[in-house]
Amino acid sequence: EIGSKVEGLKKDDEVVYKSYSGSKITLGGQEFLIVPVKDILAKIR
C-alpha cells in the first residue's frame, strides 16, 4: 500500500530508488521493502 500522504504514486507503480535505501520486513511470510519517498528517483509507470 501507499501512504496517504504520498502524492504522484499509486499501488503497482514501478519505481527506481537509491540502491542503499529501504528496509526489508517480512509479514505473513511475504517480504516487503519500505523505501522513503525522498529516495525514489523516478517512476517508470
UniProtKB/TrEMBL annotation:
Pfam families referenced in this protein's UniProt entry, alphabetically: Cpn10
Concerning InterPro entries, the annotation shows: Chaperonin_GroES, Chaperonin_GroES_sf, GroES-like_sf
A single Gene Ontology MF term assigned here is: ATP binding
Q: Which family does it belong to?
A: Belongs to the GroES chaperonin family.
- TM annotation in the entry: none
Gene name as annotated: cpn10
- Identify the domain of life: Bacteria
Question: What is the protein named?
Answer: Molecular chaperonin small subunit GroES
Q: Which UniProt keywords apply?
A: Chaperone
Name the species this protein comes from. Answer: Candidatus Phytoplasma solani
Keyword Chaperone in annotation: yes
